[in-house]
Design a protein that fits this description.
Layout (H helix, E strand, L loop, with lengths): L2 E12 L39 H13 L3 E2 L2 E2 L2 E4 L9 E4 L6 E9 L14 E13 L3 E5 L2 E5 L6 E7 L6 H18 L11 E11 L9 E3 L5 H20 L7 E6 L4 E7 L9 E2 L6 E2 L2 H9 L5 H12 L3 H7 L3 H14 L6 H25 L14 H12 L5 H14 L3 H8 L7 H14 L1 H8 L5 H12 L6 H18 L1
Parallel strand pairs: 12-13
Antiparallel strand pairs: 1-10, 1-11, 2-6, 3-16, 4-5, 4-15, 6-7, 7-10, 8-9, 11-12, 13-14
């Protein structure tokens, strides 16, 4: 029997605020001495009262808006019974009945970047968002031998839980969804989305059912996956495991699983709890949360243009390929740097066709030379705004190539110096005497010398060996120290060779 997988995702995103969700302790816990960012509130001391972090609420609403959610104008906090040692007060402050954001959706690009087979056709899928609600994070358990220790620095950090409907149908779609969500929170600037550091943790809920059936199978949950690859690998393994069990006539147990990265298998952690096990009831120490029209409008204005929208615009306005558009929107800082280059390369007299041409040139420069040099200097894509070379300078370099002041090979040499020094390209060209030679008289003399110096290659060309033409062009470029106008050299060389053919 053939089965299909039904997957819903629960993702916890740590919000990048300065302080914790309900107290003034620092929320910056990574690499900090254990149990130093703590106070009576996040340690659950009797009589300590929580206070809502406004910035965390704003970040959560911005995520909800970006996920096309409805925003609850009135909601309240609830206590969720929590009997594990990483939350010392024995409960978690969360939202259950009335989440802050609900009934949304996100479009994800489900094409596989690794194949290199890029189609220009749409490969997007809409995944519905059931809810996104705020809560506080737990502490961290550290197991050493037969002892366990607790670090409460993370306890109380603002956490946004985002839950999808069961719309995902493969491990690759799960990967695409999580990638899109990570990109979204980074575009908004509300979270680092760094899974390796625990800033984003994913828990797929999945089941198998006979293909064509509408009844859901027994659900299992895979807890706290900490990388995109782990999400894809764990789901793929669990599909294989459950398929084999069902093929043998065995039942699937509703359990919570962990992922053993080293062995590449899932392992049972505990039986799955139900919502009633948490015994939710209203939090008596916090007031209800009211979201006004004015506040919502202010936050909506702070939501930037997101990646998929930018991709559509780049393809429509600049004629970029799907691949180029995805690469340039992979990080918000890169997209904004690219757009600054395009804006600086244009002026009031620039035609739409020339704007598109310069945009394509900017896309090529960024994906090749800019990314190459950033990688060589161990810089992340998000560091692009801090480069010495400015967008306006790259735009100037693009125009210098366009008007044939320098050729492309020389431009790459100039750009390396721009990257290191931040100097303007025109100043580098002038200082080093790199301006392109386009004078036909001078280049005609160079071509004549090349033809005279390489008679055997000339004869090969005249006998039909077209590939030797590239060699002769290279010799002419070498004679001009790379400064010769390649287009002019190609034309003059072709004329000289065909002239010899006519004389034979």
């Amino acid at each position: 029997m053939e089965y299909e997988v039904i997957i819903g995702m629960e993702t916890h995103v740590e919000l990048d605020t300065q302080s914790k969700m309900f107290c003034a302790c620092s929320a910056r816990f990574f690499g900090v001495e254990p149990n130093t960012n703590v106070c009576p509130v996040c340690l659950g001391m009797p009589g300590a009262l929580p206070v809502i972090n406004k910035r965390a609420v704003e970040f959560a609403i911005m995520v909800g808006l970006a996920l096309n959610c409805k925003i609850a104008r009135h909601t309240f906090w609830e206590r969720k019974s929590y009997w594990y040692p990483d939350l010392p007060k024995g409960y978690q402050i969360s939202q259950y009945q009335y989440p802050l954001a609900y009934d949304g959706w996100i479009e994800v690009d489900v094409r596989d970047l690794s194949t290199g087979n890029w189609s220009e056709e749409s490969t997007r899928k809409r995944i519905r968002i059931r809810r996104a609600h705020l809560e506080e994070d737990t502490g961290k358990l550290i197991h050493v031998g037969d002892k366990s220790y607790v670090d409460y620095n993370r306890s109380g950090v603002p956490l946004l839980e985002i839950v999808t409907e069961p719309d995902i149908r493969s491990a690759d779609e799960a990967y695409a969804y999580l990638s899109a969500l990570q990109q979204l929170v980074r575009y908004l600037g509300v979270s680092t989305g760094d899974m390796e550091k625990g800033a984003m943790r994913c828990e797929p809920n999945m089941s198998l059912r006979p293909k064509g059936s509408r009844e859901l199978g027994v659900k299992v949950e895979i807890k706290n996956l900490n990388s995109l690859r782990a999400v894809r690998d764990a789901i793929a393994y669990e599909i294989r495991r459950q398929t084999a069990l069902l093929a043998r006539g065995e039942a699937i147990q509703q359990v919570t699983l962990g992922w053993d990265e080293a062995r590449g298998i899932t392992v049972v952690q505990r039986e799955k709890e139900s919502a009633h096990d948490y015994r939710y009831f209203p939090e008596p120490d916090l007031p209800p949360l009211e979201v006004s029209d004015a506040w919502l409008d202010e936050l909506r204005a702070r939501v930037p243009e997101l990646a998929l929208s930018r991709q559509d615009r780049y393809r429509r306005d600049y004629g970029l390929s799907a691949y180029d558009a995805v690469q340039l929107t992979s990080d918000r800082a890169v997209a904004e740097w690219f757009e600054q280059v395009v804006a600086c390369a244009a002026d009031r007299e620039t035609s739409a066709e020339r704007v598109r041409m310069r945009a394509k040139a900017a896309a090529n420069w960024i994906q090749t030379e800019v990314f190459r040099l950033m990688k060589a200097h161990n810089l992340a894509l998000s560091d692009i705004a801090a480069l010495r070379v400015q967008p306006a300078q790259l735009a100037q370099l693009i125009r210098l190539v366009e008007d044939q002041t320098i050729n492309l090979n020389t431009a790459k040499q100039v750009f390396e110096e721009m990257f290191e020094s931040g100097a303007d390209p025109s100043r580098i060209i002038e200082a080093r005497g790199l301006a392109q030679v386009s004078d036909e008289g001078a280049l005609r003399a160079v071509v004549a010398q090349v033809v005279e110096a390489h008679p055997s290659q000339v004869q090969q060309y005249l006998s039909g060996q077209e590939k030797v033409f590239g060699f002769l062009v290279g010799q002419a470029m070498k004679a001009t120290k790379g400064k010769g106008n390649a287009q002019v050299i190609n034309r003059l060389l072709r004329e000289a060779l065909e002239g010899q053919r006519a004389r034979q």
